[in-house]
Amino acid sequence: MANIAANRIGAQLDLAGPAFAVCAEEASGSVALDLAVRALRAGEIDAAVVGAVDLSDEPVHRAAAAELGSTAQPADAAVILVVKRLADARADGDPVFALVGPQVGSGRPDLVIGDGGDFDPADLLGAPHAARGLLAVASAALALRHRALPRSGQGAAPWPTATTADAVTGVLGAAPHRVRLRAADAEPWSPVPAPEVRVYSAADLPDVLTGSARLAVVGDQLPSARRWLIEGGPRPAGVAFRAAPLGGDTAFVYTKGSAAYPGMGADLMLAFPILADMDGVDLAAWAYRGDGRPADSLAQILGVGYLARLHTRISREVLGIRPDASIGYSSGESAALVALGVWNDPTALAADARASELFTHELGGELRAVRRYWSRTGIVGDQWAGFVVAADAEQVRAMVRDEIGVHLTAICAPGTCVIAGERQACEAFVKRLEPGACVRIDYDLVAHAPEVAEVRDRWHALHRRPCATVPGIRFYRGPPPTGTTRTRNRQPTRSPNRR
Questions:
Q1: Spatial CB neighbours of 3, under 8 Å, sequence gap ≥ 6
Q2: Which residues contact 262 (CB under 8 A, 6 or more apart)?
Q3: Neighbours of 301 (CB within 10 A)
Q4: Given phi > 0 = left and psi -120 to 50 = alpha, else beta, which region is 497?
Q5: How many whole angstroms separate alpha carbon 469 and alpha carbon 474?
Q6: pLDDT tens digits for 181-240?
Q7: What whole-number distance in Å separates Cα of residue 296 and Cα of residue 292?
Q8: How far is CA 335 from CA 16, 206, 295, in A?
Q9: Are 374 and 381 in contact (CB under 8 A)?
Q10: Which of 122, 163, 314, 496 has the largest count of CB atoms under 10 Å?
Q11: CA 59, CA 61: separation in Å to the nearest integer?
Q12: Residue 466 burial (C-beta neighbours within 10 Å; 0-12, 13-18, 19+)
């Protein structure tokens, strides 16, 4: 009876060649895919329509599944794939979602989709029995297409390096069925349609009100933008206007490792999978896999540094923004040098940083260097702590002058600074400030404090790296106590011929 339906579909679509049904329980659709691939490789057909449909969310099937001990929630589904030889698909201008093969067993896949895998669509959509296998194949193809790992109950996780996936289908009374897929064309992914951006240009404000102006509008905010320009009031979200072009230079600003947070950069990586697939991409993987927490402060720094490079590529290659200057804040100084091409060895830099133990054992972790400094200077304690303080920096500087083990380590902005040092001393110090004026920093690393001098030579050796000249960009570093310094048109580092 099933063959009748297959033949009638083929006739209705005016398809030549064989039309038949496959019965292999949950693997029916994926076995049909195997047969189609075999026929294509043998040259028996030029294309195949492979489909699987099951309306199993009904009382009879639920009772049968329960009797067999199945705990999966039955579901209805229809999945259809079009399969061609790659050369034919390219010649026809078809989008290629994934490639089938090589055979399972040729190396470990990056992703496993389906029964017992990294993601099982049945957990999200239910188990559509005969369509379950092809549903896993379609999910795996989409995962590779978007370089992403689907997740139940939360957004997809970026996986820019994913090149292979196995679609696994558990089968009643038989071994699981597997289909190996390989990545083809990458496609951006966004959970919502990308908003349209309209930009208008004219000489002055009257022209903007008649429909042509220096006005940028995201989405459907044009009526709101007109009202705002005429009547005033709060500027609508997604609207920007200037009466004249911006003057001055453009600087890219790079933050430090403590700016890291779970899930950081995930949407950007999904939206720009090709740009995201660069050296060091796994350095940020902790942010969107597992519990989203880094193993240590070095992982935070390296993850933020990778995302700094991604932001830089998007700004320069997609948006066409050319920086005249770079401003680095703390470890953002190193991030800037890598992102803008002064240092071209991000993978080696990450490996050297970890091997040095500066971040993981000396200035972080068990704080070996810090403990040596404290022992020599008579400071009692065994833990480091830092706080962002909402207070005038000069006032805080005066307050910590006579404190033992407490330092003003950074000035973030007018009225905001950072104090850090021995934990108990810092906790006692912040109690002297206004209630609610400070926030503890979740960052296990000592920086910008006298204790760092214990490892001065090793620190300099790590950061003395081969350098490339980057014309046209001024590199600024964080200010010393008496102001800001800069290096014009070259990197603020050591000789390009030495490490």
A1: 19, 20, 21
A2: 287, 288, 291, 292, 293
A3: 28
A4: alpha
A5: 11
A6: 999 999 999 878 877 877 766 666 666 555 555 677 777 788 888 888 888 888 888 888
A7: 12
A8: 58, 44, 19
A9: yes
A10: 122
A11: 6
A12: middle
Rg (CA), the chain: 29
Q: Assess contact for 140 and 73: CB atoms under 8 A.
A: no
SS3 assignment, position 389: strand
Three-class secondary structure of residue 165 per DSSP:
strand
Give the pair of three-digit tokens for residue 263. Answer: 């899930």
Q: What is the DSSP letter of 24?
A: B
**Pairing of β 325-328 and β 474-476:** parallel
pTM metric for this prediction: 0.85
Place of tokens 């075999």: 38
Q: Considering Cα of 293, then 295, then 299, then 303, what sign does the dihedral take?
A: negative
Q: Please report the pLDDT score of residue 317 as a whole number.
A: 95
In b/e form, how buried is each residue of 224-240, taking b as 16+ CB within 10 angstroms?
A: bbbebbeeeeeebebbe
